[in-house]
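seq:
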Amino acid sequence: MTVMTAEEQTLVIRPRRAMWMAGACALVLVAAFTTVGVLLRSSNTGAIFQTSDQVAMIGIGLLLGAGAMLFTTARVRADAEGIEVRNVLLTRRFSWDEVLSVSFPDGASWARLELPEDEYYSVLAVQAVDRERAVEAVRALRRLHKAATSR
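struct:
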C-alpha cells in the first residue's frame, strides 16, 4: 500500500481489500456467464440458442469481469509538490496549495481531500475496509501536506 522511496520521497497508496473483492467478483462473473454460455444449448426452454448466443454470454461475462476489475485501478501518488489521485476512470493532480486538508469523516467509505469553497475530492485508494492501512495512509498524506504547506 505505502511505498516511500528514498530518492523521490513519493508515497504510493493502493487499496488492498477492494482489489481482492473486485478480483473475486470478476472471477465469479466470468465463471457464471461461461457456465451459462456452455449449458445454454442443452437446456430445454423452448427457445433456440445457437453458438453465437453462447459466445455472446461468455463475452458478456468477460466484459462484466473487466468492469469489476476497474475498481482495482484506484491509486494515490503524493510527493512534496502535490498529490495525484486516480479513481476508477479519472486521474487528477492537486498541488498541496490547493488542498486544505486530508480527511476521513466518520462513517465514510473512503478518505477525501478538502478543497476550497466547501468542495472535496474522494480518494478511493484509501478505504475504510483497509482499517490500519487506511489510518497509516491518511497520516502519511497529512504529514506530506503539513510539510508542504508549512514552507
